[in-house]
Write a structure and sequence with these properties.
16 helices; 0% strand
Amino acid sequence: MSLIHNLSMRSYDTKFLNIMKLVMAFFVMIVHFSPFKTINPILHFISIHGFTRIAVPFFILSTGYLISENGKISETRLYKTLKRLASLYIFWTLIYSPLIIAEVIYSTDSTSWWINLTRNIFFEGSFIHLWYLIATIIGLLIVTKLMTLMNTKFVVLVCSLLFILGVLGDSYYGWSITVPVLSSFKSVLFQFIRTTRNGVFFAPIYLVIGLIIKQYQPRFKKTTLSFVLIFFLILSFVEVLLLRNAGWAKDYNMTFTSLPLAIITFLLTLHITVSFNTQKYKEIATTLFYIHIGVYVFVQAILTAGDITQFRNYGLLAFIITVILSFLLTLLIHKFKKYKLINHYFM
């Protein structure tokens, strides 16, 4: 029995994609706020380093898929997308600038503040969640340039190699520095960057996979995708727990199982159809993504009588309060969506 129904060029219905973006925005909040930290150490670890970590890969896959025109990116579409991403990045960097400045002032990093600030703004992300925007911008520039130099197979190969290097510099960092060649490479690399979770190592593979999915529109049985998803979900739990026990991880932004897990989740999402308009879910997800850190800082200020010099975790109660306040503020903001500024920067 074939696992694939057909390879028709009929486009997927992307309505359910908007609903999943809201789910992924919620996952982002779980990763940032660690709701189970004070409840159970294993549950806490899995909740912030497991399935929830596919949120940003899912967003980047969506960008690759939606910007694609039969596997290609036109100059017009690329320019419009880069312009929008850049305007969002600049706007939200300015909005969060007081917190960005406070983070620089109170940083314990021995590197000069201006080097940190420059590196963050132009490469690693100006603030906690805004790295996604600059990573997508850099990733798009890399992928589109590669596509002018080589065919899609070689682009996938190059992006895969970058991803592997990224994984070795992130969750497998402790192992990679025991290998002389990799250790030398990492020692040079980390003189210039602090994380491989960026537009060079992280974003390109997800963008190009999104492009390929749009080009070929592969059709699978939903039951098959569901079983494969469960398999990789279990495998990802095993991987992160083994990494935890080995003590290798510098962070858990990039693991070997995160790539297939994100791809299968994205494919399954595209195979699910709904009959109602889901645009509001996408808009709510977008607003939540941008404002949730600000809301959490507000909650922290209340819990600490005004101390926001460090980003702290206050467990499940603060998480619930933040989620509720974020949703309420989002609904309030959406009352003003007719205004161009609100529609452009919050939706």
